[in-house]
Amino acid sequence: MPGRKDPGPSVKNKEQYEALRDRGYSKEKSARIANTEDSGTKGGHAEKYEDRTKEELYEQAKKVGIDGRSKMSKSELIHALRNN
User: Fold this and answer.
1) What are phi and psi of 25, to 5 degrees?
2) Within-domain flag for 1
3) What sign for the dihedral angle of Cα 14, 7, 66, 78?
4) Both 31 and 50 in a single domain?
5) 51 and 76, same domain (yes or no)
6) Where do the H-state alpha helices sit in the chain?
7) For a tag on the chain, would you pick the N or C end, based on fewer CB atoms within 10 A?
8) Residue 65 lies in a domain
9) What's the structural domain count of the chain?
10) Are 50 and 83 contained in the same domain?
């Protein structure tokens, strides 16, 4: 996009980063999502959060960088994952 500043070398999937920014996501959240291992892959095959164990939710929260996850209940982890 013309006029856009390059997000830098720390962003692994720049195309996804820009798409998220265009949708109104913050720079931090866009970078966090664009830097996940499976960034940019289409899926829709993920298990529902409610069907996962608390440990699985914790690992996903860790992967995306959610702070305070060690003190969260399963429902709090689900909420944090859906809203971060």
Assistant:
1) -70, 150
2) no
3) negative
4) no
5) yes
6) 14-22, 27-34, 54-64, 74-83
7) N
8) yes
9) 2
10) yes
